[in-house]
Amino acid sequence: MSGAADTTTFVDIRNLNVTFTGGRKPVQAVSGVDLRVRRGEVVALIGESGSGKSVTLRSILRLHNERRTTITGRIQVGEHDVLGLSGTQLADFRGKVGSMIFQEPLLALDPVYSVGAQIVESIRRHEQVSPAEARRRALALFERVRIPSPERRLAAYPHEMSGGMRQRAMIALALACRPQLLLADEPTTALDATVQIQILLLLRELQREFGLSVIFVTHDIGAAVEVADRIAVMYAGRIVEEGPVATLIRAPRHPYTMALLRSRAHGALAKTADGKRPRLETIAGAPPDLAALPLGCAFAERCGLAIAACRQSRPPVVMLSAQHAARCLRTDTTAA
Amino acid sequence: MTAPNPPVLLEVQGLVKHFPLQRDPLGRGGGVVRAVDGVSFQVRQGETLGVVGESGCGKSTTARLLMHLIDPTAGAVVFDGLAVGGRDLGLKDFRRQVQMVFQDSYASLNPRLTIEDSIAFAPQVHGVPKREAIERARDLLARVGLQPTRFAERYPHELSGGQRQRVNIARALALQPRLILLDEAVSALDKSVEAQVLNLLLDLKDAFDLTYVFISHDLNVVRYMSDRVMVMYLGQVVEIGDSETLFEAPLHPYTRALLSSVPAMDPDHRTERPALTGDPPNPINPPSGCRFHTRCPHAEAVCAQRMPTLGVRHSSRTVACLMHEPGSGHSGAPALEAVA
Q1: B225 contact residues in A (CB cutoff 8 A)
Q2: Which of A214, B5, B10, B294 has its CA 20 to 30 A from that of A256?
Q3: Is the ipTM of this structure higher than 0.85?
Q4: Share of chain B above pLDDT 90, in %
């Protein structure tokens, strides 16, 4: 989508491990994630609940409770080493370099301030501008995200807006300080179909206009295909396959990605000769317990192609082409 | 469907539900939410009727009205030729034959009952001895793919979302119902688990001769599951038809917009412009005339004045749109004599 994506890496995540230590047993939510995002590039992180996609995303702004979370590895965003930032540096970083939009704007926005006041506050926290100037910019942002009667809506409280409009307001807030990196955590999941597509198209448009790098977390492959340049598929805290959108959708090589695409009702519409529906292909079993991850490939337990070696050690990354990689020992058997 | 014209199992006539809004102490506010406003449809024996629409369109309220979980403001539900809630068919008897599965698998189970007790609860209410009810519960657990020896004595919090939804399905089956209302029953599940539950629902339908009303906002899933589909907008039915025909050639402009909002899964042909702008209007003060006219690309002045009726148009398709209503005054409408 963004032909403008240049080759410089903007976000560089290496060997990221996130462990939550608040419970009875430590939960290994993210295990050794490597991810690079170029300037102006949109990467979708997809996966099911508990796959670690949101945890990875939140680590980039260090939103996890530091007392109950152990993060190791390296997160580099531009010239910032995120895991090494001090408290004030981190506050400068959030919103100014990277900002986030959430799934549920009603929870993410402050209920006791008008939406306009929250945008003005954010601008004035990061830049030395007059209140009038900040307000003018907030109004321009509301116009940009196409909120009807923007002047009046700046004074509205979050609960006075509809779901789609709240999500537009949160996008305006996220872009208020002209960040270079936008992190989107299931931004359209709570929205209705006709509103979801409007928000996806708006994000795509803004991304092009501002040349943003975007990491888009979703469980909806369809939404990912609409906005992303590349897709990374996560399973049990690991990226199992990564590649350009078209390659990943049409020629996936990791057994999990393949099964995930086949299990969607989308493809199984034609009825068979006797008027019955073809059965959906399913993935037997359930994802592993993150408090007791297996030694080898986390998907081996559910994988039809698994061999003994899959269970012995974690499969290495196999480069299938310059852009397409999978963590699987059996990619020789999964070629179309 | 197998038989050419199976009998009507459930008929809904002019169902209305208005929720009054409370006035504040100064007398401001008030008004009514027109959640369901004149909904009529039929469900034939053995079919799956899909119900789609966006939040606030009244699909869940319709389901609750069908079960008489809330009382309708007006309208009637007829089951198997008998009026529900009257002398012909009491509520207890009706609910033995019609069961419901909800979206939130956790909230719909009693946390203090083991799952076999949950499943055996309703049959005991209806007079089945405890031993027999428990035995049946264990059979049903096996039917929905949960080994009774492993699962029967567990509590809901010990199960995953997919497993809990299987328990809810087993519980719905415990009374040997004829019709099951599935209200967003798979919406909270991950895709790979959703596929397992959809397959299970299709198997059970065959095995127990069930009829389904399948409510969902996921259009791909509704298309996969349903024989016929009903599309709702702001408390009214805008189109009903055979599932394949409706998805291939939708008549109502709203149905068309809704279908074209589904991401296409084709990276070379991404959606370029949204089919609709703005959010659905508020059902407290729905637009006059056709409720969709405020967002409809084909709206004309007449659409704000005249409410379209849900009528059978060309080749047995049922749609409520002035463009398809002969002599309605809309420039796109067929002439009166064209339909003889």
Answers
A1: 265
A2: A214
A3: no
A4: 69
Q: A275 lies in a domain?
A: no
Q: Is residue A293 part of a domain?
A: no
Among B218, B274, B279, whose Cβ lies nearest the Cβ of A197? B274
**Separation between Cα atoms, residue B125 and residue B98, nearest integer Å:** 15
Q: Which of A267, A292, A310 is the last residue of a domain?
A: A267
**More confident: A119 or B329:** A119
**Residue B259: how many CB atoms within 10 A of its CB?**
18
- Tens of pLDDT, residues A103-158: 888 889 999 999 999 999 999 999 999 999 999 999 999 999 999 899 999 999 99
CATH code where residue A34 lies = 3.40.50.300
| Tally of domains within chain A | 2
A-chain residues near B218 (CB < 8 A): 265
Same domain (yes/no): A136, A160: yes
Whole-number Å distance between alpha carbons of B223 and B198: 12
Which residues, at least 6 apart from A16, have a Cβ–Cβ distance to it below 8 Å? A30, A32, A33, A34, A35, A56, A59, A71, A72, A73, A74, A75
Instruction: Answer yes or no: do B279 and A163 touch at CB < 8 A.
Output: yes
Query: For residue range B199-231, what is the model confidence (pLDDT) as tens digits?
Result: 999 999 999 999 999 999 889 899 999 999 999
Chain B residues in contact with A275 by the CB 8 A cut-off are 1-2
A280, A290, A323: best to mutate for the B interface, most B CBs within 10 A:
A280
A161 and A188 share one domain = no
